[in-house]
Amino acid sequence: MTTAGLSEAGQRLVEKILEGQPAALSRAITEVENETGHAAALLAAVQKATGRAVTIGITGPPGAGKSTLVNALIGEYRQAGKTVGVIAVERSLVTVFAWPNTRMIPACLCARSLPVVILGGCHAQQDGSST
Amino acid sequence: MSQNEQFALPGFEDWEAAYNKQLPDGKTVRNRSGIEVKPMYTPADWDAAEYGNKLGFPGTAPFTRGIYPTMHRGRTWSQRQLIGLGIPSDYNKRLHRMLKAGTTAISMIPCNSIYRGLDADQVDPVLLGTCGTIINTVEDMETCLDGIPIDEISTALNDPLPFTMLAQVLAVAERRQIPWTKITGTANQSDYISHFVANHMFYRLALPGSRRVLMDHIEFAREKVPNWNPMSVVGQHMQQAGATPAEAMAFTLSTAIQNAEDCLSRGMELEDVLTRFTFFFDISVSFFEEVAKFRAGRRIWARIVRDRFGISSAKAQRFKFHGQTSGVDLTRQQPLNNIARVTAQAIAGIFGGLQSLHTDSFDEVLSTPTEDAARIAIATQNILREEAHLTDVIDPLGGSYYIERLTDQMEEEIVALIDKIDDLGGMYKAVESGWVQGKIGASAMAFQDRVTHGDETIVGVNAYQVESEVELPVQPLDRPAPEDIETFIENLADYKRRRDQSAVDRALDDLAEIANDNNRNTFEGVVNAARAGATQSETIAVMRAELGFGQPLVVA
Amino acid sequence: MNSEANLTRPAKVLVTKIGLDGHDRGSRIVAAALRDAGLEVVYTAPWQEIPTVAKLAMEEDVDVIGVSSLATDHLLVPKLMKELHNAGLDYVKVIVGGIVPDNEEQDLLDAGVARVFHPGADMADIVGTVQSLAGEAQNDSARQL
User: Fold this and answer.
1) What ipTM was predicted for this assembly?
2) C12-136 has which fold?
3) Chains meeting A at 3+ CB pairs closer than 8 A?
4) How far apart are the CA of B101 and the nearest CA of chain A, in angstroms?
5) Which among A92, A97, A117 is the nearest to B437, CB-wise?
6) Mean pLDDT in chain A?
């Protein structure tokens, strides 16, 4: 079955995502973040394989312990053999050097290996929040 | 007399008119701290009647002209050149040569691996011994100091807390039956705040743990190594990270205030402690600004000790400092030009009244200094003293309308910043909140902008560029021989096999317990670990595990 | 968007330090300059392990890696290049900035580093170079969809 709007390379990418390859996922996220021409088709193709996830929302004021909780949950679910996805809306701002409104992404979220700071980017908004 | 009042000097107006005629579009000149610098200064800018109030005499309050009555005439500054490279025997050889060439005091730099708290067997060998000496054990320290009378020569150690190098030196002293009371020198990198904020090279432990370890170290030294200066408050890192000279001085003094308060909270006798405080500053090439910065700093510190801490003894009010010429001002383009830069920086430090000086080698920007370049750096100091006679007169720029006015202005800037930090709850809190880091970063970026736009001239870089560089003879890079490194690593493995492992384990277990017991002294634990044969990495690993590493990258 | 550089989306750069050095004034200033020019910058603390850098480059799907180096840390860069190759990240362009002795610069270029910047380098030059390298990386056939 052909996937509407996707090139061969795009279809291969979708296959790799569904196989669980991080590089493919990362590549696809780039497309979606930047709202490129491929984004809609990629989302549509991947969406067919979704719908079975349990969605949990976690929110709270800064310092409440969200990151810690998420980290712990990820650990537990992975141990139980589940796959986990995290969508983080990082609103807290940090001060680094002289960079105002900079996002600090802790290591525990998503698949990032270590804490990093993100400057700029297409999705950096006025209030410093980001998705 | 107010600053704005034109002093009725005959001829002033004529001069001003002639000046403005020739330079109708004269740009405002500002120094690095942002203070406007006029083309000329007169008695309208500084009234000599202020002498008693603002200057006084060297050795007594307000100390503007110097902390000792004789200053460099009585005792010239220590020529304390940083030495660090290769394996311990390399260090020992170069130290002996530098002592012959005129160095009068020791400053040891360990390998970067040691700053990370790693031993030679934990790091890619290609990184070892290239910027400092690999010293992992007491045995290594023995080799470094072979034939060196450590009871006679002052030894500054550039190791950050928990001061494993000092622990090794103390163990060596013990073996040589030299009482610890004879050990003199300074813990040059004891300022954990500056490491957190500005130079992560030396960063090792989270802030709260660092605070405690520093206090333990000061307490231990006061009791057992009384001639050791356990506290060197460092302005160098912040200035090198981009703080303006006024900011660097203000943040340093605020850190000193914080440390003094912490010592007080510990029940230490402050007058005694302050007598052993020393400072460590960067000397940039902004000549007059640096001289004014140091003079202002001296005056402000004496006042802080007297008014804020209520201590009137001159010994406690003395602002003792070591100056290092700033590597940040040196360029890679036409490196020999750096000799001129270092000379200007050194003179500024000398006129600023420092007690100890390190002059950079001109090839600092290319790699770790070669021996020839290191010799020129020392010769520079000797020439300034013996040929240019810079030490014949105390505070020779004192009384200059410019210097006095600038000293006052720097003082205002510095005090305003100290007040701001007070408002934030003191230096520790100001750093926790990220305010200090933000200021330093903003100044660093502003400076870069000025360079990019040509407002700040750097000869050979954004002005006076040379089409084709004169080829310097390619120096063989001063790197340790791979065989030497291999041997070192083998010896380390051998050492671990030979030593009394159970004694080491006991000492490290005890250290872990101490770290969790606020009533015990962590530095004492570090010294015992060294005596028992633990390597520096093993000791630091325990400290990190118990006290935490923290995250200097960001402040939430 | 920098059309000269053929970018299809904002360039994404990883600014990092490997090895033992901890001086980060230079890397922070470069990161700020890149950010101001519209790039997205992922900035790490110093002392990163090489496998971690490769993994992060993949996770963040970066176009360029900028390595800030002092002391002899640059001697590790060829190992980074190998790691990137093993991770299938040949399209990622690598630049090095900092203190690199003249007679070791060629080794880095031979290992695949695109450019070495020395102290005093022009900021506009750095930013422009990163933009055009990012353009090459984005248009690499391995990444086309």
Assistant:
1) 0.89
2) Rossmann fold (3.40.50)
3) B, C
4) 41
5) A97
6) 77
